[in-house]
Amino acid sequence: MSRRFLLLGAGFFAPATLASTVSQWLQADNPALLFSLLILVLAIGGGLLTLLFHHLEASSFNRLHAQLTLMPVAVALVRKKDGHLLYGNKPCRQLLGVRKLNDRYLYPDGLSSNMLCDFLRPFTGLKAFREVEEALPQSNGKVIPLVVSGQSIRCQWQPCWLLFIDLPRSRHGEQVKLENEQRIFQQVLNSLSELVYFKDKSGKLIGTNKAFDRFWRGRIDEGITEEQDIGPLGNTASHTWTTAPDGSSRLLETNCNLLIGDTGEAIGTLSISHDVTDWHEMQEVLKTEIEKREVTEQELAQRNTLLDTILSASRDPIALYNEHGVYVGCNEPFARSLGYTQQALLGKSSADVLEPDKLEIFRQTDLQVTQQGISVKLDDYVILDDGTPIWYEVLKSPYRDPTDGTTGVLMMARDVTERKMAEQQLADAIMELQELSFVDSLTKVANRRSFDEQLRKMWYSHIREQHPLTLILCDIDYFKAFNDNYGHQQGDFALREVAKVLRSVVKRETDEVARYGGEEFAFLLPNTSLEGGQVVAMEIHRALAEKGLTHRFSDIASTLTVSLGVATLTPKPNQDYGELVELADVALYRAKAAGRNCTMTMSEKEAG
User: Fold this and answer.
1) Whole-angstrom distance, CA of residue 445 vs CA of residue 426
2) Active site residue: 519, 539, 579, 604, which one?
3) Active site residue 519
4) What is 98-163 written as a DSSP string?
5) How far apart are CA 132 and CA 123, in angstroms?
6) Half-sphere exposure of 58 (CA within 13 A, CB side)
7) 454, 450, 451, 376: which is closest to 412 by C-alpha?
8) pLDDT for 467-501, tens place per residue?
9) Is the pTM of this model over 0.70?
């Protein structure tokens, strides 16, 4: 027997020798040899099959990896048993914040293997699932709504989920809207003749307008002023001499303003520069001419002639008036802005030509200029005789008459109408964004944030006035069964229709209907008693029944119905508005316990 095993070992890789040896063994009548041969053949065959399966599995994963890498949507490969992340393509890493460390893939902060297992547990035993909505928590406290579809596969000898992740369709629309708003914002900036640039809070440049790019032509570092301390009003101004593209020296006045985010923190700075060289030179010339009046009367006459020439040549309004407000010099643009001719205005007092409210403002600034000897800048709005509205940026500077020593004011104005219009467009765009943040995107009624703000305001105003404040909480009956049987898309449609019905019930401008959360809505009724709240509740039931939204899976009716909880309080200084919400919530619970599709009330007396 040992000799035969030696022959087998010596000729293991020689097919002819192996075949001869096997043939000899088969002819032998020794059962032990035959059994050993069988074991050896099974071991060799098993090893070859293992190598073949491993090669096929690796080849299959490589092909799957190549396909997933090219997919434009976010795709993740997750192990079923423990939620371990095996793979995430580039869109997945961008959308969810998945990190790749060497050959490993790590979940972002706020997401773990256990959380994913909990999410996938309802689909155990299924081959696939489609478009399941889920929210991904972020480290900053916000959440990202997602739509997830899954396919059960085997990968690396283990059962896995192949997940396809995308944003809801409404978020795509919001993204397009945001891009359009950003494009409009950039167009507004590009329409300005001023040089505009803005930085993030770390001081990194994040954008410029076309005027800035044309002026500096690659000298970006020179065009960005050093950061200075921002004043208490959130802005600061600086003047810088520089060289224009044509080689001339220009004086730029740069106003730097803080950009404030929705939560009140500084998110960056916005800087606007405009060329004030001509204005500066004009001011310097005027100051020089005034000083020359001290030499001789002839020089005074010459300077006055030069001053008249400058005033006539300037397109910007310029005027001189003494400490009593009497105009002693002006050009035609200034006189026209007040509705006079140049000759008619000279010698008149500002009290004769200005409206009382504007006169008071001008007198306050004139006192600063004449008594403190400082320059004052302000904005002025004027409507010309032809109806044209104009915004002026006005600079008032002190001057002293060398002939008699009296003080006065030199006033120069610059037309900034285009800049003001651009600022107003920007303010309107910001206001629209703020209004959108208080409206529920699905139902188009006020959202929970707006409701909380209005409740807080109404509560304190009712404490002062000692009037009753009524709150109605409204819950759609058996809405989960509606969603489960008709689908979430039809459920969203039903929520929008219910919201339309609820809006139609509200008659007063001071009343508010808001989406309180999910299928719950809330009514705030100021200066309304409990009886008035019951009247509104009856109108809600009537209007919804008249609408007749089909709900075949409700246990109480064939159409959509609601349960209402009405609560009324006359707030006291030591009370919190949370007590009103609690009363309404108790009343709503009683309505549900009473069989739904009804109204229950809670008052101040019952609470006590």
Assistant:
1) 26
2) 519
3) yes
4) -EEETTEEEPPTT--HHHHHHHHGGGTT-SEEEEEEEEEE-TTS-EEEEEEEEEEEEETTEEEEEE
5) 11
6) 6
7) 376
8) 999 999 999 999 999 999 999 999 999 999 999 99
9) no
